[in-house]
Amino acid sequence: MKQENVSLKTRTDDFEHQKMLEIKNLKVVFPMEMGLLRAVEGIDLSVDKGKCVAIVGESGCGKSVTSLATMKLLNPAQAVVQVDKMELDGMDITQLSEPEMQKLRGRKVSMIFQDALSALNPVMTVGKQLDEIFRKHFKISKKEAKARSIEALRMVGIPEPQMRYKAYPHELSGGMRQRVLIAMAFACHPDLIIADEPTTALDVTIQAQVLQVLSDMQRKNGTSLILITHDLSVVVHMADEICVMYCGKIVEKASTRDLFKQPLHPYTKGLINSVAKMSDEKGEFVQIPDSLPNPMNKPQGCYFHPRCPYATEQCRQEMPYMETLENGRQVRCWNWREEVCYVE
Known about the structure:
- The chain is of the alpha/beta class.
- The chain folds into 2 domains: about 20-240, Rossmann fold (3-Layer(aba) Sandwich), CATH 3.40.50; about 270-275 and about 285-344, no CATH class.
- The chain has 13 helices and 13 strands.
- It has helices at about 1-15, 65-70, 100-105, 115-120, 125-135, 140-155, 160-165, 175-185, 205-220, 230-235, 255-260, 265-275, 315; strands spanning about 20-30, 35-50, 50-55, 80, 85-90, 90, 110, 190-195, 225-230, 240-245, 250-255, 325, 330.
- A hairpin with a 2-residue loop joins strand 10 (about 240-245) and strand 11 (about 250-255).
- The termini are far apart.
């Protein structure tokens, strides 16, 4: 019996150590002249080692703010951030100073921004920008940094990396620039990468290529990945788990397979139905009615109820709690058990 207890404890410790990122009760508020803008309202988020978690939702629901808060890139003079727990690979980062966070960014955690042209320095070649990353985190010569930079460009599928090394951002196509950002993010083999809408403004063909590069690099390096997007079709083949976000709150959390097979929240169902399907014979574009509420004036009760065809009086008066089901998935809805909330 004693041996069994020891084995059980070991398995439990190993399981707990699998968390690369764990966030509890994250809140982000922007004080404005007209009042408080509550961008993120008490969300929980965890990412296992080597896994991909997607955060999906419409623009303005708090996805990017969540990523910036995780990286501690929000200006303290403009945003008030509160969190009960924020651990990166078991390390508490809530009290780390800016110089301490600078040592972690790039080496332990990296971010791929959505606008590559804005993220890259326009007056520096992409090679020099890559060199800076290597020289900041490793004590290596300029020659060695250049060799690593060229190899990083080659790894993300950029043709003639020696020539692209000397190019300025404006001399590259949108897809090439996005690959450069991916190369920069993976340069120091960080444990966690946050990709914030990495295919914005790219055409469909280039989107697929960039996402394939990102997926290949993530799996090859065993990196944990947070993929932020408004397009569910982007994450279906990449994410292990999906968090659906609406008005600063997570309204549903489930494995990718379970979520697409049987979405429980009406908002999730609306997002899935709005994705164009090749098999759709009707040729109709399905969309969620109306738009996100004003973040300065969110409705009482469930924030989604003004757009929800299944809303009841309880939905209009009370905010649903996040219910955890037996299989571990979570949903924030009073009426999720109703058949009308299931996918057809």
